Amino acid sequence: MIRESPNLIADWPGGPWVFGIMAGVLAVAGAYAGLWASSALQGTEAPRRIARRTATTACWALPLLLTLYVLSALPGRNCGSSSPSCEEIDGAFPALLTYAVTAAAVGWGTYRVRSAREEQRRAVQQARLRKLRKKGKGKSRAAS
């Protein structure tokens, strides 16, 4: 696929480094959108299940296809040097390197922000319940 198409990696405005950064950001966005779609679109009726599965599949396809596209630009392991289908695509290694570093950094940063927000929400909820228990209006400790 990549060998027959125009060289999208090297011909990208800014070169393979910018392509790798863009691919890494899109891969993380697609992965988090897939996580969101699988958890947010909960439902028991058939149309909601179909919509959830379709949205989840579409979101997870983006990071998978980007990864496969960048990996397919690398030369084959058992290829001869004279085969035109085995030659390396220009800019494949820099694009793969920036893709991996960007996806790891953006993914880790997004995870840290998301977990910090969740911890903050949990602390506010616990403080609210503690205040209600003090007044005798919240759930008792035996009930929870």
Explain what the structure shows.
This protein has 144 residues and is mainly α. It is 67% helix and 0% strand. It contains 3 helices and no strands. It has helices at residues 16-40, 46-72, 92-135. α1 (16-40) packs antiparallel against α2 (46-72) and α1 runs parallel beside α3 (92-135). The termini are far apart.
Task: Please specify the SSE layout and strand pairing.
Blueprint: H1 16-40, H2 46-72, H3 92-135
Helix pairs in contact: 1-2, 1-3
User: N-to-C terminal Cα separation, in Å?
Assistant: 57 Å
Oligomer: single chain
Mean pLDDT across residues: 79
The radius of gyration over CA amounts to: 23 Å
- The percentage of residues in β strands lies in under 5%
* Total E-strand runs: 0
Shape call: elongated
User: Helices and strands, in N-to-C order?
Assistant: HHH
Task: Enumerate how many helices there are, as a single number.
Answer: 3
Q: In percent, how helical is the residue content?
A: 55-70%
Query: Biggest sheet, in brief?
Result: none
Q: Give the low-pLDDT segments.
A: none
Structural class: mainly alpha
What's this, in brief?
This protein has helices spanning about 15-40, 45-70, 90-135.
Features:
144 residues, mainly alpha, 0% strand, elongated
